[in-house]
Amino acid sequence: xxxxxxxxxxxxxxxxxxxxxxxxxxxxxxxxxxxxxxxxxxxxxxxxxxxxxxxxxxxxxxxxxxxxxxxxxxxxxxxxxxxxxxxxxxxxxxxxxxxxxxxxxxxxxxxxxxxxxxxxxxxxxxxxxxxxxxxxxxxxxxxxxxxxxxxxxxxxxxxxxxxxxxxxxxxxxxxxxxxxxxxxxxxxxxxxxxxxxxxxxxxxxxxxxxxxxxxxxxxxxxxxxxxxxxxxxxxxxxxxxxxxxxxxxxxxxxxxxxxxxxxxxxxxxxxxxxxxxxxxxxxxxxxxxxxxxxxxxxxxxxxxxxxxxxxxxxxxxxxxxxxxxxxxxxxxxxxxxxxxxxxxxxxxxxxxxxxxxxxxxxxxxxxxxxxxxxxxxxxxxxxxxxxxxxxxxxxxxxxxxxxxxxxxxxxxxxxxxxxxxxxxxxxxxxxxxxxxxxxxxxxxxxxxxxxxxxxxxxxxxxxxxxxxxxxxxxxxxxxxxxxxxxxxxxxxxxxxxxxxxxxxxxxxxxxxxxxxxxxxxxxxxxxxxxxxxxxxxxxxxxxxxxxxxxxxxxxxxxxxxxxxxxxxxxxxxxxxxxxxxxxxxxxxxxxxxxxxxxxxxxxxxxxxxxxxxxxxxxxxxxxxxxxxxxxxxxxxxxxxxxxxxxxxxxxxxxxxxxxxxxxxxxxxxxxxxxxxxxxxxxxxxxxxxxxxxxxxxxxxxxxxxxxxxxxxxxxxxxxxxxxxxxxxxxxxxxxxxxxxxxxxxxxxxxxxxxxxxxxxxxxxxxxxxxxxxxxxxxxxxxxxxxxxxxxxxxxxxxxxxxxxxxxxxxxxxxxxxxxxx
Length: 821
Prior knowledge:
Number of domains: 5
CATH superfamily of the largest domain: Transferase(Phosphotransferase) domain 1
Number of helices: 13
Radius of gyration: 34 Å
Helix content: 10-25%
Largest sheet: 8 strands, mixed
CATH class of the largest domain: Mainly Alpha
Structural class: alpha+beta
CATH architecture of the largest domain: Orthogonal Bundle
CATH topology of the largest domain: Transferase(Phosphotransferase), domain 1
Distance between the termini: 83 Å
Number of strands: 48
């Protein structure tokens, strides 16, 4: 048994990695199996564990209270303890040892300080997950004798460095576990090739075989691999002594983790701290184009289905390899050879993953222009680029020889400049000029034709303009019983169904076919000309819906969009006034999200698609249709769902149309549904496209939460509606508390958080602060910046209601509630 010198063991825990130390917790002299050390922020835990179904014991660090156990570091990977009598000891010079029940050392940190230095070593588990041995009087995590971050296993968390010390030759890299029961090094590794004067890039290896190449590094990250958080940044250090990459993730809400699995997949996940949920962001390799050398020299991998490989511009296909199911080739060759003449130049290829830089030279002081000159002056140079995308950054990569392992990204790649022969470059430019000329000619021709059509349409509209004008400037419809026009069907431009057809389709309006009831009357399901339809019948006993009924025909008759319910025809016979619509088998959105049983049928992907579909429908109404249409009664009950759960906006009975020169209107009769009406409409009778945007914002928050806006009360009794509740949670960085509980872990965090943010932007009090439909779509797609939302409209505290500052009538206006199906 090895006899150790006098032993002390003090483990300290910190909440943050700042230089000022918090109060520490002193543990007993020896740290044994069965005990754990938890950081003050309760994120990490140090102790003994058995992986999977194994009975072996290991000393490790893991995320606390996370199921399943998520280990980030293992001390004795290759030397497990066979019993539960292990003990950790810290020598008085800073060497940590793990001994078994018989006193045999099975692992040691090999980290003693100089014997001439008087130290009182302590061990601290920092909030970063880093186990550090340091002097008792040290106040900085970096001032250490030894740290676990220098010896990573299969996992990277924020602060860990991978790379190489050029002086000592020591390399830090990841290795997978052999299997879930055995943390000893497996056959997969993640390494960064750090060679002087070469540009760093990372690889996934299976033993000595390259599986995937990362990079190269672009100043923020490795090209093509986006961060979860835009504020994250990987830090690359390149100097004469050290070349490494440090992974940094600065957030108190999320914890980012990269883990190399035993199957060779690198998983990128993030932990939502407040609810202990892991969300997977990325798996590498993700597709065939991630395979190293998938395509040959001068080929790029461009698609995810065969054929994968395509020659770069200026190159032609080589001889295909036989018996190769992946459609691989021997690569591509130049269409025209280089002669190193003065007219040779470079073709810019955008959105590229740079070729392997093993045959490249890097200069960190050259501008892009200087880089081009350097490449052109060297006849062996085949391509050049600036790898650094940071603002104002310089840098020059020069490739010599074949360009290999190239692929095309959709939007995250970089510009690569490939050397071409003068004649090839001239032909390429000529083709581009010809293409541009054709495009310009076709565009001008179409513009002239379009202007002619618009002029003809204007003349025809003027001749056909109706003489009677409805209230609020709306034209009358042929459905008006007082309209004596003899050309009703022609004016409607819709199929006219006979009453007998409608009777047969609905089985004489049988109660079994009834779908619902609105202010206008009942809606029935029917089968008309072999197609399922919804038949909307104006009630004879009530005239409430007559004006709305007429208005709906005017607004929707000529509107055609995949996210609007399609009007198929009408019937205006005897005393019946009927509209025929396409049938929506899944009824309305509110029947799902507000139903405790059915809401679980809508996962996050479907909910996000519904949000996007409604936004596209609004864009068509507000911008892309012939006239600007303001719906005025947008709500969950008026969003219908087809067979594929695609949303379609319905019920245009309250809609109003503007010409292109109009932007808003006033009315003395405020109509709509409480909980969705915008403040300026409810108070002043002003409505515009921004009124619909307000309603859409409410719907977004309802879809995320599964709760109704009107009548919602939070647990703290602080807000009387969902909008106020969402606003308060946003300001407290607790927006995840808004999420519908039935979604569990099925949602994309970035999409969900963006939806809440955009929803709050839509419900802002002032119309001019709300985004347009186009801006909403861009923000939901991840394009454009997200401004900070201001206080929403109708944000009312309970105290305000109790003090009677809100009265039921505002400025003498009456709120009419009109509920559709």
